[in-house]
Design goal:
With about 70 residues, this protein is α+β, with helices and mostly antiparallel strands. Helices cover about 40% and strands about 25% of the residues. The N and C termini lie far apart (about 55 Å). InterPro entries: Doc_partner (IPR013432), SpoVT-AbrB_dom (IPR007159), SpoVT-AbrB_sf (IPR037914).
């Protein structure tokens, strides 16, 4: 899919086709993340680095449930 950069107000932007927005489950105001990869750039509706950090946090909270419970008192 080829997209062109266009002038939007005083900025430049890319208009995403409705079909792409539907496939990505995106709507106006939703965040979109661009990640550099060895093969170019990846555009996704979530940040893979943040997702990995959250998974690690969930695992830590699961294994240290008692400690967190005591700290919350």
């Amino acid at each position: 899919m080829e997209l062109k950069i266009t002038k939007i107000g005083n900025s430049l932007g890319v208009i995403l086709p409705k079909e792409l927005l539907t496939r990505l489950r995106l709507d106006k105001g939703d965040p979109l993340f661009i990640t550099e990869t060895p093969n170019g750039y990846r555009i996704a509706p979530y940040d893979p680095v943040f997702a990995e950090q959250m998974e690690q946090a969930r695992e830590l909270m699961k294994t240290r449930r008692n400690v967190l419970h005591e700290l919350s008192k």
